[in-house]
Design goal:
About 30% of the residues lie in helices and about 15% in strands. By secondary structure, it is of the alpha/beta class.
């Protein structure tokens, strides 16, 4: 099995800037070769810094945004104007600051009858936007992920049944006792199909988990981020020095 490809940034600002350059290069390459760039973005503290820098990048301002389509990796089942909404985060930090057609923004609807209906609706959204048949899986040009302190990515949490879902493109992740924490997430089948994935990890609170994930025995149920192990050749781990700690035994590029 291929070793994880780790790139270590000096700090969170350097990490964000490196991610900007990766995003722009991926967008330019996809548009040049296929005429369209499709990306799925994550919410959270680390992606937020990247999105703010991307929106203000002179190189990003001249990208052909009419050929860029933006999707979400996951979403909390809250109204789109909620402080907890990943959609709101991406809009306020990034999408409101660039000239992208509204039709190219494919959010996860949270106005459906329930969280399961929202997952099916998002699946239809992806199939229509990619022009897919029922059995086909979308191939994103770039998926930007994070990793939680518990080893989760997207909304695939430890010991969650969502990790086993290979029948859908998106699935519901229901919280016991608190519907405000219900989520919709891309499934591992969609993550694994991407042409390229970047996992952003920042901060000393992730150090121990990152070391366990990168150097321990694969166990998707314990460390859901390891659903990416079959496609490690397409995954870049972009990690700041604080999060990296003293990790050894991995390719640091």
């Amino acid at each position: 099995m291929q070793e994880p490809r780790l790139e270590i940034a000096r700090d969170s600002r350097d990490l964000a800037e490196r991610m900007v350059q990766l995003f722009i290069a991926a967008a330019e390459g996809a548009v040049a070769s296929r005429g369209v760039f499709r990306t799925a973005l994550s919410g959270g503290r680390t992606p937020e810094q990247f999105l703010l820098r991307l929106a203000s990048s002179p190189r990003a301002q001249v990208l052909p945004w009419d050929k860029v389509h933006v999707f979400w990796v996951d979403e909390r089942y809250v109204p789109p104007d909620s402080q907890a909404s990943n959609y709101r985060l991406v809009v306020e930090t990034f999408l409101n600051r660039i000239d992208i057609p509204t039709a190219n923004i494919h959010r996860i609807s949270t106005e459906c009858a329930d969280v399961d209906a929202a997952a099916r609706d998002y699946e239809r959204t992806m199939r229509e936007a990619f022009g897919l048949q029922d059995s086909e899986i979308p191939q994103f040009d770039l998926i930007v992920l994070g990793m939680g302190r518990d080893g989760h990515t997207a909304s695939l949490f430890p010991n969650s049944g969502a990790i086993y879902d290979t029948d859908h493109l998106a699935c519901a992740v229901c919280s016991v006792g608190d519907p405000k924490l219900d989520r919709i997430t891309l499934t591992k089948s969609v993550l694994r199909a991407a042409r390229r994935l970047v996992v952003l990890v920042s901060g000393g609170d992730k150090t121990q988990m990152l070391e366990e994930v990168l150097t321990g025995e694969p166990d998707e149920m314990r460390y859901p981020i390891q659903v990416l192990w079959p496609v490690l050749d397409r995954v870049t781990w972009l990690v700041d020095r604080e999060a990296a700690g003293k990790i050894s035994g991995v390719d640091n590029g």
